[in-house]
Design brief:
By secondary structure, the chain is mainly β. The chain has two domains: 17-143, Trefoil (Acidic Fibroblast Growth Factor, subunit A); 151-271, Trefoil (Acidic Fibroblast Growth Factor, subunit A) (Trefoil). It contains no helices and 23 strands. It has strands spanning 22-26, 32-37, 41-46, 66-67, 70-74, 83-87, 96-99, 103-106, 110-114, 123-129, 139-143, 151-158, 161-169, 174-179, 190-193, 201-202, 205-210, 215-219, 230-231, 237-239, 242-249, 252-258, 268-272. Strands 12, 13, 14, 15 and 23 form a five-stranded antiparallel β-sheet that branches. A hairpin with a 5-residue loop joins strand 19 and strand 20 (237-239).
Length: 276
């Protein structure tokens, strides 16, 4: 049974620092973690408990952010320099202070930021000059737990019509049903965590519900109940307000949010898709 547990955001300044490691997450994207990729540098990916997301952070005052035996620091110049795992040398670029007010800031005046605060899997996390006219991006620290996540990526087939898949329908740009593509299409690929309610991401956007209008949309990812979904064991895709059920309107299948009922029209089959 999937437990309906929603993370409570806690200010960084009061979080304990476990010896086993931590993760860093954007405050507005609780299901995404800073990930150190050998090819791409530092990027934002769904939290999955991999060692690339296991950091050791300074408990108080300036100190290194460690990944294994290496220390993280911005690499190169430009506006969006990624973080690189380098030999620990105590340099200012490797000395980080983490707080609710100042964000994640190093001794060279660079702050950790996620490009565009995007929910896209693989968006760059970088260390550029700290802003002066507005606060730096907020981050959350969480204990590292490799068993806490079950990241999934794939498409949702409608049980009542298995030839149809949920996704962004064009033209019209609405969330509805179209024939499941033989070739992988990003409009029909969702990424989410199978162990807990959370965001269902499509590229750089998240599935959202409007309970008053009864429709679904893809919107900017953020912390909000309308963006918290769970794919239940009975196949229903639901949030606190109801379940997703397609309805035929003007000759097209539109996804609607309705009261949950044990019917085939509200059941979905998840079909995993390999990462491209």
């Amino acid at each position: 049974m999937i437990r309906m547990l929603l993370a409570v955001l806690v200010p960084l300044a009061v979080l304990p620092v476990p010896a086993s490691g931590q993760t860093l997450r954007p405050a507005t994207l609780p299901a995404m973690c800073v990930t150190i990729d050998e090819r791409e540098g530092s990027v934002s990916r769904p939290c999955d408990g991999s060692t690339a997301q296991r950091l050791v952070l300074p408990a108080a005052g300036p100190g290194p952010i460690r990944l294994g035996d290496s220390c993280l620091a911005p690499r190169g110049g430009g506006l969006y320099p990624p973080l690189a795992a380098t030999r620990c040398d105590g340099s200012a670029g490797q000395q980080w202070t983490i707080s609710a007010e100042q964000g994640v800031r190093n001794g060279e005046g660079r702050c950790l930021a996620l490009l565009g605060l995007s929910g896209r899997d693989g968006e760059r996390v970088y260390g550029a000059s700290c802003p002066t006219r507005y606060p730096p991006q907020a981050w959350r620290v969480r204990a590292f737990d490799p068993q806490a996540h079950a990241p999934a990526r794939g498409r949702l087939r409608w049980a009542a019509r298995p030839d149809l898949c949920l996704g962004l329908v064009r033209p019209g740009s609405f969330v509805g049903l179209e024939p499941c593509a033989e070739v992988q299409r990003w409009e029909q690929i969702f990424s989410f965590d199978r162990r807990a309610p959370g965001q269902f991401r499509v590229s750089g956007t998240c599935l959202s519900a409007n309970p008053l209008a009864g429709g679904l949309a893809l919107t900017r990812c953020r912390v909000e109940p309308a963006l918290q979904w769970v794919l239940r064991e009975d196949g229903a895709l639901s949030n606190r307000s109801g379940c997703v059920e397609p309805r035929l309107a003007d000759g097209r299948w539109v996804a609607k949010l309705t009261a949950c009922a044990a019917t085939p029209e509200q059941r979905w089959t998840f079909e995993a898709t390999a990462r491209p």
